[in-house]
Design brief:
20 helices, 81% helix
Length: 500
């Protein structure tokens, strides 16, 4: 009996590191396609537009799969969903790694997209399986991993691709997926006692089709033309499907996503801020990686390799992880209601710095470090707001919906940056003028200001201090700092091992 208790304690202690590693794996694998697009186009003899599908398909599948996985994970099958989705990611990594041609690579990347639904399930698991004083810092750390892993994935991908070839990057994804699957199989607990509800199949179809159409329109707008009939028609269809989905969700007994939770100001703030912050975050990341690789003959840029462009993002990952120490300290001295606007303000500062100081690689390293600190503070708080405001049986669904909104924000931010730069590209030239980056940075500043206003105005309309954190939570926050630091140290150690 004592041996069984000891084994259970060991599994619970290992749960947070394994879940954090799972989140890092998802983030790294989802970012594998971006730096490799030009290389994939060359190796597989396809156009850059076609090669872009190695990234687009992952986002499309992830956006469609995440809400359904979140709802399934709120029932008795969460462990099966986590293990099954991780196995699908492993299969996709192997398929993309094999030299079978571009079609199989895209299919493999699509299967990898299923992994984007794993982080909300990991957050729901942490909430249910851990005591309150341990679950809060674990939830914050899991949210940060989705950001930190992107900055880690870019340089790792660049290094592997430059030294071992494009398919080696996907073999790397297969190895870490297998490790994550093995760890999850050991420590993820069962949820057999949860009540089972029928899956809202019609809601899943409407939401999946609407999101797929919207993300496809965002992804293909540049090649189709932003005023083309095809793009406008697809966008209209997407909006109609999403509106129809919303009406359906409000009228069904067991919705895929309970939209009534948006009446809670904490949930509404987290979801709206997640969408807007995702836009601004990806605007800066896409601009910086493109700026660094632009030949200096253009009058700006550094003509750097994919590896160097990825290394510029490392401070972003490191600072976002470090924010896990800053958030509890800031919340203890003020309140959780302050952390969100503070994170937006720091992120705004990073965009201002890019606007004014981007003449050296060192300046870009500093800019991305500031951006990581701001985004880390912002994203660390959002899941906590949602978790504290929804019933336990709605956690997976509510967090999944927040994740979908972030994904839409990421795609929109990448597109916005590209559209602005395209508008400042002279006819007959391939590269935009430096003024294009100025204009995009100004737009990014405006987006962060909107996000900051949302985090201040929306909660305060209904006693934000009481909605966002109770007196008991402030006391528990003091006790959870050590747990947050432990989780942060685990991520740092894993990041170091992955880097080596």
């Amino acid at each position: 009996m004592a041996a069984q208790h000891a084994k259970a304690d060991q599994r619970q202690r290992a749960l947070v590191p394994v879940l954090v590693f799972l989140g890092m794996v998802v983030a790294v694998i989802s970012s594998l396609g971006a730096p490799l697009v030009p290389t994939i186009a060359t190796v597989d003899h396809v156009s850059l537009t076609d090669a872009q599908w190695s990234l687009t398909i992952t986002l499309l599948v992830g956006a469609v799969a995440t809400p359904t996985m979140g709802r399934l994970g709120d029932g008795p099958h969460r462990r099966r969903v986590i293990l099954g989705a991780t196995a699908v990611v492993l299969l996709g990594s192997v398929l993309a790694a094999l030299p079978l041609g571009f079609g199989f690579l895209v299919a493999g990347r699509g299967l990898q997209g299923v992994g984007l639904g794993l982080v909300p399930l990991a957050i729901a698991t942490a909430r249910d399986a851990l005591p309150a004083d341990r679950s809060r810092p674990a939830v914050a750390m899991l949210s940060i991993t989705t950001v930190a892993g992107v900055g880690l994935g870019y340089p790792l991908t660049g290094l592997i691709a430059e030294t071992l070839g494009v398919h080696a990057g996907f073999w790397f994804g297969a190895v870490i997926s297998a490790l994550a699957l093995a760890g999850a199989a050991v420590v993820v607990p069962r949820t057999d006692g949860r009540e089972k509800h029928p899956l809202d199949a019609l809601g899943a179809i409407l939401l999946g089709a609407g999101l797929a159409a919207l993300l496809l329109a965002l992804s293909e707008g540049e090649s189709w033309g932003w005023a083309s009939a095809r793009l406008l028609g697809l966008t209209s269809v997407a909006l109609l499907l999403l509106v129809g989905w919303a009406f359906h969700e409000l009228r069904t007994a067991h919705p895929l996503v309970d939209l009534r939770t948006l009446r809670n100001r904490a949930v509404l703030t987290a979801d709206v801020c997640g969408l807007i912050a995702g836009v601004a975050m990806y605007m800066l990341m896409s601009m910086v990686t493109r700026f660094v690789q632009t030949p200096s003959a253009a009058g700006y840029g550094f003509g750097a390799s994919v590896l160097v462009a990825g290394l510029v993002l490392l401070p972003f990952s490191a600072a976002s992880v470090a924010s896990s120490k800053l958030v509890p300290a800031l919340a203890r001295r003020t309140s959780m209601a302050v952390v969100l606007p503070f994170g937006c303000a720091v992120s705004l500062l990073s965009m201002v710095l890019f606007l004014c100081a981007r003449t050296s690689l060192l300046e870009l390293f500093v800019i991305m470090g500031v951006a990581g600190l701001g985004v880390g503070c912002t994203f660390a708080v959002m899941p906590g707001l949602v978790v504290s405001a929804v019933p336990a049986h709605e956690t997976g669904s509510a967090i999944s919906f927040n994740q979908v909104l972030r994904t839409i924000g990421y795609s929109t931010g990448s597109v916005l940056g590209a559209v602005v730069l395209e508008g400042h590209t002279p006819a007959g030239h391939l590269l935009p003028t430096d003024s294009g980056y100025q204009a995009a940075a100004w737009l990014g500043c405006a987006v962060w200001i909107v996000a900051m206003v949302v985090t201040i105005v929306v909660p305060r309309r209904r006693a934000a201090a009481q909605q966002l954190v109770t007196a008991d939570e402030e006391i528990l926050m003091d006790e959870s700092i050590a747990d947050a630091e432990t989780a942060e140290d685990s991520v740092t150690a894993m990041t170091g091992r992955a880097g080596r």
